[in-house]
Structure of FadR family transcriptional regulator:
Amino acid sequence: MTNSNTSATGKLVYQLEEMILEGVWRPNHKLPSERRLAQRFGYSRTVIREALRQLQAKGLIITHQGIGSYVVEVFHSIEEEFIDPLVHLFDSHERTLFDLLDVREQLESHAAFLAAQRATQTDLYQLTQAYERLASPDTELTMDTYFNFHHMVILCSHNPILVQTLCQLKALLCKAIQTCLPLLIQDAEVQNQVRSQQQQMYEAIVQRDPVAARRATKTHIRFVSHHVHSVKKSNFY
Amino acid sequence: MTNSNTSATGKLVYQLEEMILEGVWRPNHKLPSERRLAQRFGYSRTVIREALRQLQAKGLIITHQGIGSYVVEVFHSIEEEFIDPLVHLFDSHERTLFDLLDVREQLESHAAFLAAQRATQTDLYQLTQAYERLASPDTELTMDTYFNFHHMVILCSHNPILVQTLCQLKALLCKAIQTCLPLLIQDAEVQNQVRSQQQQMYEAIVQRDPVAARRATKTHIRFVSHHVHSVKKSNFY
DNA sequence: TTTAAAACACTGGTATGACCAGTAATTTAA
DNA sequence: TTAAATTACTGGTCATACCAGTGTTTTAAA
């Protein structure tokens, strides 16, 4: 895209990706050493290294000093390079995730505050529906029902800017925690806690208690943040 | 992640990402040349290059031969979807502007809160500069100096998500009030009030008083909101 | 004076060779 | 036989030189 066709490194990256995707180098296959690759492809070791670093950054290979480089399990095509730059950052910069959850706490608690003030009868009806889909203890807690309820709360705030902004943050959050989320919602204790917290949010809103709604929301997001934290910490792969 | 802590390149990548996240290098900012970076960070050009290649592979920077490397708009893809549908709302639906200012109040007051906690010495120096350009009573109050100061406050929060989000809101706000803003800042009384409010924000931050900083910011934005309101009311076109 | 060409000073891209730092197999000495 | 030392790989880093684009400045011609 940028200079894949012009620069030697770009061309080499493309070649190497081809070889991996074509199956010349299968997953777990050990690549030749950098010096051998340089010889074989007719490039300097500099070019070979930069190309390998790019493959590494893309997650196609993994490299160990003194050992060599290995092809990883690749289950997605090259097209996947269009994912958000921010996603990478969430992996290496853990605090970015907390920054995100911090902003979410500010906005969504305010949304709950407004929701308790402004929600119409129709809103409350829909909110109740969303809540009941969530609250029944026999059904599984899914990301869908979870976000559905929260989105409904946000809609009740009747602030389109708030809605837009929080939708963006939600998209980011989904990408950021998609790996560790399954671990989270499997935990039965977490499920119970979340259900209890959302019950408090729900009741505060229908009872028109803005302060309580805000407090309940803050409590919930801090709970999530805390648990995401602990999951991330015990998650070395 | 893999060897971020062991290798020089890994550490450098992390550092550079931090600088981008912290806002030291903002979107569209041109990075120093590779040779300068090598000198500045004390690494060989090889390491610098490999780190930059990784950032490039992640989509954080874009590089042109003979030109240099630039920080990309991290949120760019989303931003278009974000702004476009909303702009036209401001014309027809006046309260959207207040919704926007409401969200801004939530986020920017929180940013000021964090700024009072987290601002570094360098931050405070830059903040002081921005404030002094703003505070001198003989110079005109311009949109530039105004937003410059507020942006600096936001940067002091050291929360990249907050920075990005508020940048978007600022862009929206500019489009929304570009017609009525001249009427606002012409008013000498308004100017004095704003200066006084920003002085309180500034002093609260340098005195490391988060609560006062938050309160001052809320006060200021509510003041703006109120005056925008009155201007809009006497402004039918 | 104006203007187009040439020189210059940057930028990133590539090549080489040397050396450091891990790893693992091989050799050596106990 | 076994444990330690050697050796030969691996990737990681450094320094230097040069190539290749880009933009500005200078220069020389019109």
Notes: Residues 181 and 228 of chain B are 8 Å apart (CA to CA). Residues 95-118 of chain B form the longest helix (24 residues). Confidence is low (pLDDT under 50) at residues 76-80 of chain B. Chain B touches chain A through 49 residues (CB under 8 Å).
